[in-house]
């Protein structure tokens, strides 16, 4: 019971921290998602000169631990005389990680669109940009939303790394309260509950909006299986085909 | 040589020494073919003969590795402009329909007129409705393809290609993903289209369609044209042993 009383004292401060956490999540997504989409498009481009740098960037972004990226931005960039606030550093670092992870999600969504749809676009004379905007992306977005929501939840929790560069987000608040009161169990439990409550709410929201149905865009009726005798290499993606 | 019958007609579509290669592996060798305006040409032959490859080379889905494609007197080159012109004038119907499942039938048909030709949406909608009516699916305008039968989907795909008002329609085994009954409704649509004077190149395994509807049948094997003739002649009296073997095999199946 005493814990509940302590929580009452902590809560206002924690809620301020939650606001910072949510802002950090929001800004990271706002910067990271468009970049992720851009990288995904670049990774599926036909020209190797575009594909390779994008792929490299994504591999680095996924390979490097987010904390390393964060330290790099926070401690490394000032050496190049680039100094930002700790919030900006955290947002930039997390946006980079976000772009790398979501690029891979977007890329998977884009390449789940049957090559035939793209060929139909080409046969109808649609430009490459219109093919993407009108046919590929509207279909890919349905495939991509559940994993994206999953990533957003991870990112929301991952913003706690910003504690390491003393952004006053939820975990920092918990830690500084604890360092005053030495009530580590109480403070960290409360912080965990606040993180968990928001995450679970997001999961519940997603389940309600996109019920379990795994969103496959190729409705069976739209694309009957090729007759077994055919040896068309339909496994080839358009980009592979274009490489030749 | 082929045009001895009517030598003054300039072919609407001419292939001249067309080769198609995948990763330097050539699968269509030096094919020349002329198609007159209003003519229906059936392309038949065993699996792997290169029929699809040749058809796809015509609208540069698979750019020919050698040779020329001439459409209505203009050679199709590598330039963006000539490719755009080609794609506006050549419609294509795929074995798998390739309709866009997130759009209704009407939206599928309107898409290219609006976004390729730049026709105002209201006008494009009217044009699309006409084409859907044409293939007997006006009542399915607001239905998504996933809710339509395979035959209906293929007819929507035909309407989608027709909405560009192409000069030539290419069909790659338009009925082979369909059971015979649904295939029949698609063939009826194509028959009507042929009767209206549409120029068509049809890759098909439907020998009746080739014999009854096509003006000319081209038999391909191993990436080459083995024999071509007026439909009735080729189907009833094939000259080349390879053609005879193929037709016998198909008929006795
Ligand atoms: N994208 C591709 N990459 C590599 N090889 C291919 C590709 N498409 C077709 N081929 C090969 O080219 C040859 C001709 O194939 P094509 O699909 O044109 O034949 P087809 O006459 O249409 O046969 P089918 O009746 O089975 O459709 C085959 O050997 C095939 O394996
Ligand atoms: Mg084929």
TrEMBL record, chain A:
Q: Which keywords has UniProt assigned to this entry?
A: Amino-acid transport, Cell membrane, Membrane, Transmembrane, Transmembrane helix, Transport
**SUPFAM superfamilies reported in the protein's UniProt record:** MetI-like
Checking Pfam families in the record gives: BPD_transp_1
Q: Which GO terms describe its biological process?
A: amino acid transport
UniProt subcellular location: Cell membrane
Family (UniProt): Belongs to the binding-protein-dependent transport system permease family.
Q: What is this protein called?
A: ABC transporter permease protein
Lineage runs: Bacteria, Bacillati, Actinomycetota, Actinomycetes, Propionibacteriales
From TrEMBL, chain B:
Compartments where found: Cell membrane
One cellular-component annotation, GO: plasma membrane
What reactions does this protein catalyze? a polar amino acid(out) + ATP + H2O = a polar amino acid(in) + ADP + phosphate + H(+)
Q: Which domain of life is it from?
A: Bacteria
Q: Which GO terms describe its molecular function?
A: ATP binding; ATP hydrolysis activity; ATPase-coupled polar amino acid-transporter activity
Keyword terms of this UniProt record:
Amino-acid transport, ATP-binding, Cell membrane, Membrane, Nucleotide-binding, Transport
Q: Which residues cross the membrane?
A: none
> Does the keyword section mention Cell membrane?
yes
Chief location category: membrane
- Xref: Pfam families: ABC_tran
Q: What InterPro entries does the entry give?
A: AAA+_ATPase, ABC_ATPase_HisP-typ, ABC_transporter-like_ATP-bd, ABC_transporter-like_CS, MetN_ABC_transporter-like, P-loop_NTPase
* SMART domains found in the cross-reference section: AAA (SM00382)
Kindly list any coiled-coil regions of this protein.
Answer: none
The EC number on file is 7.4.2.1
Question: How is this protein situated with respect to the membrane?
Answer: Peripheral membrane protein
Report the family membership: Belongs to the ABC transporter superfamily.
What's the protein here called?
ABC-type polar-amino-acid transporter
Q: Which organism is it from?
A: Nocardioides simplex
